[in-house]
Design goal:
3 domains, six-stranded antiparallel sheet, three-stranded mixed sheet
Length: 323
């Protein structure tokens, strides 16, 4: 695990190393190091990378790499901003070397020849070996000045390229797609509000008199009074009339008694001339006979059942509204 020596001790060691660098290198070849980019603007930051070869790392049995903590001055005008960061270089999951990185910056423009950088390698036996890396060139540029106004040049506008046919087709396609989606949504909303199917017209509902007459004629053709007992037969007959009253005059007949239905019809007769007293009386006799069959266990004769059905048909026919 990497550990740091005493910061004060390391700072003095680094200073002395820089001063004595030429003498140390007389019998030792410095390794190459590289900058992430060799040219920066004032205040920009750049990574300085040094690679420890695999053979050096293994043969020297290195335990740690010692380096001072930031910030510190590398040379006049160039400052180190980060601690030394180490990363393993692997090839097919095998260690090929160790890369050391240092973040540096400069706040003075000019060309700098970075000094040789020493890395202190602490071996397992406690001794320290030094590995030197050749300092690369760093160019620090300032913001260009307009000599006419002595002000920094403004930011250049974004470069514009001519629009291609491919871009035009893409834009037109997107516009058409969005338009189609909007039109489809409007179409669906309108169909729903009109209670119509989205993709096909629903079969129009029969008007109230047509629906009622269909049921009443079916009862008559099948002679249901002969196949059913009086109670279910009159229940079907009166419910058909109740639905007709609801659809024709919006009378809540399903919740009303026979007497209440007749009273509601007489009130509606003031506005509807088709609701004559004759029509109401024909319905009244059928409703009265139905109440006796459903609630008093009365068993009407066949001719009475036929007469009740004919009264219901006559009532619907007399009150049919002709458009």
């Amino acid at each position: 695990m990497m550990q740091l020596f005493n910061r004060k001790y390391m700072m003095w060691g680094l200073v002395v190393s820089f001063l004595l660098c030429p003498y140390f290198l007389m019998g030792q070849t410095a390794l190459k190091s590289v900058l992430e980019k060799d040219s920066i603007l004032i205040g920009d930051q750049v990574w300085w990378s040094m690679t420890l070869p695999k053979d050096v790392w293994k043969e020297k049995e290195i335990e740690t790499v010692v380096f001072p903590e930031p910030p510190f001055e590398i040379m006049q005008g160039v400052e180190g901003l980060s601690s030394l960061q180490l990363d393993s270089l692997l090839h097919k999951k095998r260690l090929e070397g160790i890369q050391a990185k240092l973040l540096i910056t400069s706040f003075d423009s000019g060309a700098y020849r970075l000094p040789h950088m020493p890395l202190y390698l602490k071996k397992q036996d406690g001794t320290i070996d030094t590995l030197w890396f050749e300092g690369p060139d760093l160019y620090v540029n300032t913001i260009p000045i307009d000599t006419a106004s002595f002000e920094p040049y403004g930011i250049k506008p974004q470069m514009r390229y001519p629009i291609t046919w491919k871009e035009i087709i893409s834009i037109v396609g997107i516009v058409l797609l969005v338009t189609a989606v909007v039109v489809l949504l409007i179409y669906v909303v309108k169909r729903r509000k009109a209670n119509r199917s989205v993709f096909a017209d629903l079969k129009p509902e029969d008007p109230p008199h047509t629906a009622a007459l269909k049921v009443l004629h079916a009862i008559k053709e099948q002679e249901l009074w002969k196949k059913q007992k009086a109670k279910p037969y009159y229940t079907l007959l009166t419910d058909t009339i109740r639905l007709y009253l609801k659809g024709r005059w919006d009378i809540q007949a399903m919740e009303q008694t026979s007497t209440e239905m007749l009273d509601s019809l007489r009130e509606k007769s003031r506005e509807d001339t088709l609701l004559t007293e004759e029509a109401i009386k024909s319905l009244s006799s059928m409703l009265m006979r139905g109440d006796l069959a459903k609630f008093a266990k009365y068993a009407p004769e066949d001719h009475e059942n036929v007469d009740s059905l004919d009264s219901a048909i006559r009532f619907v026919t007399l009150t049919t509204y002709v458009f």
